[in-house]
Amino acid sequence: MPATTECRAQPGEFAPFVDRSRCEGKAKCVEVCPVHVFEVLRMDDSDFARLSALAKFKSIVHGRKTAYTPKASACEACGKCVEACPEKAIKLARVMERT
C-alpha cells in the first residue's frame, strides 16, 4: 500500500513508540490511524512490572489498558496518533536499518 498524501514516509521508515507510564488506553490512536497500526489491550505483565509505583496505580485505575503497535511496520508517519493522544504518550521515531 503506497503512502497516502497525508503521510510523510513509506511504511516501515518510522514506528510509533508508546510510553506505557502515560498511556491510559483511551484508543484515540486506534480511531485516527489510517493504516491500523494500533490496538488497545490489557497491559502485559512484563510491561506492567517495569512501571513505577505511581504509573502502576494509574494503570490499574484505567483497567491496565494500553496501546500496542502490532502493525508498527505499516506506519507511514502521518502523526495523527501523536496529535490525538490525550496523554501525549506516543512518539514517532525513525526505524534504524539492520545490517
List low-pLDDT spans.
none
Shape: elongated
Helix content: 10-25%
Per DSSP, the total helix count is 4
SSE pattern = EHEHHEHE
Structural class: alpha+beta
Give the overall average pLDDT. 90
Span from first to last CA? 25 Å
Radius of gyration (CA) equals: 14 Å
Lateral strand order in the biggest sheet: 1-4
Specify the biggest β-sheet. Answer: 2 strands, antiparallel
Residue share in β-strands: 15-25%
Q: What is the total tally of β strands?
A: 4
In a few lines, what is going on in this structure?
The chain is α+β, with helices and mostly antiparallel strands and 99 residues long. It contains 4 helices and 4 strands; from the N terminus they run βαβααβαβ.
Structure overview:
- With 99 residues, the protein is α+β, with helices and mostly antiparallel strands.
- It is built from four helices and four strands.
- The protein has helices at residues 28-32, 45-49, 53-61, 80-84; strands at 14-18, 39-42, 65-68, 90-94.
- The strands form two sheets. A two-stranded antiparallel sheet has the order 1-4.
- The radius of gyration is 14 Å and the shape is elongated.
